Amino acid sequence: MSLGSGGRKLSFELLSSDLTADDVDDTSPRSLPETSSDGRRRRRRRSKRKQGFQSPPIVEEEPRVDGSAAAATFRVTDLRSVVEKVCQSSDVEGSAASCVTRVGVELRQRSVAANGRLSAAASGDDATSSCGSSMRESVAAAAAAAADVIDAARRPEANGVLKKLEKDESLDWEKFIKENSNILGEVERRDNSPFRYFIGELYSGNSLRSTIAVGNDKKRQRVYNTMFHVPWRCERLIVAGFFVCLDSFLSLLTIMPARIVMTVWRVLKTRQFLRPNAADLSDYGCFIVLALGVASLQMIDISLIYHVIRGQGTIKLYVVYNVLEIFDKLCQSFGEDVLQVLFNSAEGLSTCSTDNATFELMRFLLDEAIAVVLLLVHSFVLLAQAITLSTCIIAHNNALLALLVSNNFAEIKSNVFKRVSKENLHNLVYYDIIERFHITAFLLFVLAQNILEAEGPWFDSFLINASLVFMCEVLIDAIKHSFLAKFNEIKPVAYSEFLEDLSKQILNEQTDDRQKDLTFIPLAPACVVIRVLTPVYATLLPSGPFIWRIFWILLWSILTYFILAIFKILVGLVLRCLAAWYINLRLTRKQHVD
């Protein structure tokens, strides 16, 4: 078993070299011959041990140049002295002494093995003769002496090393914290000098670096999308949708009357009444609804409603306008379902058998009655909204400005800060398109009222106010959709996809999802426009006999119809050409991307 400590090695070979023959014969039990005087020798040894003797100091070797461990020598008499001390130890240390005994036996066996004068046979005989207590004491003493030698060898002074280990200094906590200021995650204390602080701020870089981080290309693209791409594509979509609504409005005033006239002419010519198809029944239903709506609005006194709305002191004009706008959206949403049900009833009536004809007819009449009631309510709401806008424009107390600010910014507040999906944004754009068309109808109503009742130069004022209303609507739509796309992370290409769907609707291409189509009901706006333009046409009729007046009424009606038909043809053809061009453009770009 090798013992090493501090680069030094205890040499047990020196132990055998320093021992004399007399010492071995006197101290080592293994060197005693087996004679009959063993008892006398043991008694002599015990008497010597009782007398005690001084152990010579441990001899240390000079330190080697190569730094190798030095071996310490000691005499066997030292072991005896240590044995005497171990024997005087308490019984509590008995267990520890027994543990050291095994170490001492091993050390002693190595020491004896290194001695050439001791043989293996003598060691075996000595082991059998040292079964007594004196043998255990000697072994324990050897182990203790070996431990002392090891401790001495570990000491630098004992090995001849001049340099001593310096004593550890006491830990200065304040000094340690000062040298390691960030050990607790605290911010380093700055210089509190105002001048140095200001100079440091001047030469430290960007003045807003503490609150605004440096952007990248993605942030730049988001800024460009918010300012340029989204407003441009959104306005392009709204303008296209506006002309789609205008085309539907013109179809209601030109195509539907022409189809009804052709049906009546065919019946009068053939003198046979055949069951009409679904398209004819739908046209009949829409014509009845339109006629009843116009007749109902003709009985309403516009001036009375105007003075009632203008005389409101408790409820402001912009509050009335916002309430009417909410009802307009409700009627529009519900009117879509009502007309779809009416068209379904018309299709069922046209294809039903003779047995179910009565049931289908009753259901068609019920759906027609519901459509008439809803149209009357919706027409009155739009008329009241147009009168409110006319009142704000005519007033001279900045009522129009208050209306625009309250209405438009309330729309921004109710839409911008909400989580909107792509499908909801699609429907929101369609609502803005319909609203844009309704505002155009309201401005036409204001124009008609100025023609009938205004005195003095009024056209310049009307043009300025109409431009203000229209431009505010365009600006609010641009701001609303820009920030909706920004907050919901919707790319500008979404508006291009919406325009592509609208182009397919213009070309009557059946899409998989019909909910992507723009749904517009032109019946209520048509009723309001006809109600407003009727007094204007009445002023153009010359005075004279009733037949003469009927002639001029028919003349102006036919002339107006042809103007509207030509306008319808132009709008329809231009829309179809632009829709086909845009779809081809989208296909080309998709092929390049793929």
TrEMBL record:
Annotated spans, Disordered: 18-67
Chain intervals with Basic residues compositional bias: 40-51
GO cellular component: endoplasmic reticulum membrane
Coiled-coil region list: none
Protein name, UniProt field: Protein POLLEN DEFECTIVE IN GUIDANCE 1
Transmembrane segment boundaries: 237-261, 281-306, 369-387, 518-538, 550-583
Similarity comment: Belongs to the TAPT1 family.
Subcellular location: Membrane
Predominant location: membrane
Organism: Lolium multiflorum (Italian ryegrass)
